[in-house]
Specification:
7-stranded mixed beta sheet; single chain; mainly beta; 4-stranded antiparallel beta sheet; 5% helix; globular; 52% strand; 1 helix
């Protein structure tokens, strides 16, 4: 089984930064890609960004592309999300997920980490 564990969430003021981490483990952990999603209060879960194990990155919006940076450390089975210039609308639970092959569903999910941005 695969386990994903996020960390790094917290409370910051608008304009601040946070770095989220997601560590993958398990005998069958061999992802094609990993991604970050988020769910804001009262809203549906939305895609933030993804990175393939070979390094191809996709961002949800240009706004996120300018403020959020996804990276990975293959040796540590870890994906990071550096978030700068945070806005109150970035407040959400952030989830890490992985998929096993291109075009397949995001299969495994972490428990989420809360990010709260105050104005």
């Amino acid at each position: 089984q695969v386990q994903l564990v996020e960390s790094g969430g917290g409370s910051v003021q608008a304009g601040g930064s946070l770095r989220l981490s997601c560590v993958g483990s398990g005998r069958t952990f061999s992802p094609d890609a990993m991604a970050w999603f988020r769910r804001a209060p009262g809203k549906e879960r939305e895609f933030v960004t993804s990175i393939t194990w070979s390094g191809t990155i996709t961002y949800s919006t240009n706004s996120m592309k300018g403020r959020f940076t996804i990276s990975k450390d293959n040796a540590k089975n870890t994906v990071y999300l550096q978030m700068n210039s945070l806005k109150p609308e970035d407040t959400a639970v952030y989830y890490c997920t992985s998929r096993r092959a291109p075009g397949t569903a995001w299969q495994y999910w972490g428990q989420g980490t809360q990010v709260t941005v105050s104005s």
